[in-house]
Amino acid sequence: MAIFGSGDKWRVTEVGMCSLSCPQVNFQFENPTAFEDIYNFIQTHLPKRPSTAKEMASNLATAAPGTEETTTAAYQVSISYLKLSILIILFRNYLN
Predict the structure, then answer these.
(1) What does the angle CA 14 – CA 45 – CA 17 come to, to the nearest 5 degrees?
(2) 68-95 and 53-62 are packed helices; what angle lies between their axes, rounded to 10 degrees?
(3) For the whole model, what pTM was predicted?
């Protein structure tokens, strides 16, 4: 959680109580590593997405049927094919 502003009263509110177990990066005071801390936290906690169609297809092949991974992988593959077909249509229309 990133902390901005100049007060400390928010800590006794419901938001403050719920955030006790969250990692916090404080921007209220001079903190030269605050942006790097947030960036590193985001990079470590974001799910890794495959970047190529081959990786997506291999994820689809290795996932168990009916699981969230299968659905997500199938969705990613279908979106990439949809983007490719739109690109082909645009090129074809441009050439005509």
Answers:
(1) 10
(2) 150
(3) 0.40
